[in-house]
């Protein structure tokens, strides 16, 4: 399993590395995205500034054209010559201005106009505050410059509205007669037009108030204003100097960049912001969500490499598992089966690793059982004494603790008992299936003389107990019907008497609740095989019960005696010297001695054939279910 | 910013007083008048509140020079303390500017700023925040009394271009210049005086500089019981030289 473990470690390490890479990979992409966003914002900011400057140039040209209108020149010249402006003059000049404004073509028509005489007085206003006139507009830098002969632009903020304004002097006959001011309101439409090709949004703000924007978004402007407060005096470089900041509007996150607006409005903290919605594809999960079907297309994803790597990894893992786990286990299993069949006495100890350890442990236990069996036999010989010629023959004792015998609910018919085949105990392994037809609970039946003489069919898979194969050749099942008993199956087993305080005789009786079955209750049972021995039977007949009574004990010994005699006859042994009384007496004595020595509650006698001779084995049963 | 022009300069152009005529004025009081030659108007300063573009000169005629006269005030300061009730001086706010960018007022005079527009203003003195408190309503007035000689810059924080200079002097004899540089101070009692000229240099202040007295001349009024007129002529220093105060004493 060494290489399997190494492989598992390598695979786990690769998985950890893969997860780490998967978690880390979005980070550089995220940084690149942020840098891209910043560049995009700065570019858009700069472009907007250029567009606004270009718009200012157009507006200044428009003001110049407006100021060159002869009607305007004449009206302002006349107004400048008067000491006091009256309403009549105001309306006359306003009408002139209105007519000139209506003549302006193009999409950038001004929203208002101011006509100013050379003294700086507002002679008339067109379209905004039209009733106001006479106030001195001189003093404002834009108007002062226009009255002095300059064309220029500015930004005004009035009543929460921002205007791009432009002014031009009105010159007539070599002298200044006034100035005109045209104003264009900053509107959402203007903002939308500015960012139309930039794929961003923008807004014009005046302090903490939004003036206009390409998209209606309510921001907290504090962060933007704080950013503006850090800037130096040169506003033309704001787009490059300012850093993008994250702003939140409702449930959406945006990245924004801000730049100050020039002119009078700039003094009032006017600025514009360029914003883009922050992409959601940041982080591993968001990146996964952003994957498109095309990303997994064969041409865009190295399926061959990934699939090949997977197959190689899988093959390596399976191969290592087969080499280091499956094959050794299979070998051990085969050895165990051969051991169970008696083909080998011990498990091979060539298995490597823990399986070898298992094999050695099993072998140690096999050796221990062998030693204990030998010791028990010697003890029984000491108890029974040497078997006389023509006497009882060999009496073996399987001196191992056995599971508690099951109670028998049906007596064993003498004919059936007499026809039980020869069985040899397999070490200390109990044979739960040997008396499968009689067992009904966790208590084990008497040890079956089970011998794996022939291979037989392999154990059937599945949890159910499969009926045993019908025949095992020379090895008869432990409880084969008398008719099925063959010549070589001289061994038979007699169920032990029930536990009693008093010594035999014992009696095998049929309980009242379980009537005695027909002559051979086991006739319908299939013979035992290895599967049954290990797994037990799927369906079992009602158990036999052995009741304690002297009569039954006597019957038991008679039964054993009859089987013993029958077996000796089949083995062509002389039976003339056998007498039941002496036999029973011997059994009672052996039983008592064995119970005293081993502390068991009962003793079971089994007749079997050993070395061509009838033999009797006494088995102590220590406990009872 | 400017202390005055040199005595020599004024000596060439100046005229030391003389009795010109008796015009029925109170005995022992004369008139101090004169003409101060204005310096050449400087080139227009850097653009203020520049928009997206630099300003462009019109191609038709030359750029008009600024008129400097409204930016000068004259004060005749003597040893005698001003007597009588302090006058009330009205200063009109006519739109985006004051009617005069700078005025001189005697100590103790009540200054009334009158808003002639329909635009409310929030005026304040940069040098003394307590001098003017509260808004100036449309068509309304706001008055205060200047108790010490000082120079105040009155402006509206919402309209940086709207600025006026208030010069408080310890004399009731104050005057302004007309476009030709002429001035007249009537009812000046006999005595020795200093004629001082203050120039409000808005362009310099926009650059972070200050405005100051730019001309000083000694004037002696001695009517000997007859009405008299003391003529004081002088030449104001060029704007570029306003840092150096000139002195001219005329009698």
Describe the structure in your own words.
The complex is a heterodimer of chains A (625) and B (251). Chain A has 625 residues and is an alpha+beta fold. Chain A is 40% helix and 16% strand. Chain A has 16 helices and 14 strands. Chain B has 2 domains: 1-40 and 71-79 and 173-251, Immunoglobulin-like, CATH 2.60.40; 83-170, Cupredoxins -  blue copper proteins (Immunoglobulin-like), CATH 2.60.40. In chain B, strands 11-3-13-14-16 form a 5-stranded mixed β-sheet, with no helix packed on it. In chain B, a hairpin with a 2-residue loop joins strand 9 and strand 10 (159-169). Helices cover 5% and strands 40% of the residues of chain B. Chain B starts with 6 loop residues before the first helix and ends with a strand. Residues 1-25 and 241-251 of chain B have low confidence and may be disordered. Classes of the chains: A alpha+beta (625), B mainly beta (251). At the A-B interface, helix 2, helix 5, strand 3, strand 4 and helix 9 of A face strand 2 and strand 10 of B.
How many helical stretches of chain B? Answer: 2
| Widest sheet: strand ordering of chain A | 2-1-5-4-3
> Which ranges of chain B are low-confidence, i.e. pLDDT below 50, for 5 or more consecutive residues?
1-25, 241-251
Rough outline of chain A: rod-shaped
Instruction: Using the coordinates shown, work out and report the CATH topology of the largest domain in chain B.
Output: Immunoglobulin-like
Biggest beta sheet attributes of chain B: 5 strands, mixed
The count of DSSP E runs of length 2 or more, i.e. the number of strands of chain A, is 14
Largest sheet of chain A: 5 strands, antiparallel
Helix content range of the residues of chain A, please? 40-55%
Largest interface: A-B, 46 and 33 residues
Rg of chain A computed from alpha carbons, rounded to a whole number of angstroms: 57 Å
Total DSSP helices of chain A: 16
Which outline of chain B best applies? globular
Q: Which strand order does the major sheet of chain B show?
A: 11-3-13-14-16
The unreliable regions of chain A are 386-395, 397-494, 497-549
The SSE string of chain A, one letter per element, is HHHHEEHEEEHEEHHEEHEHHHEHEHHHEE
Instruction: State the end-to-end distance of chain A.
Output: 42 Å
Oligomer: heterodimer
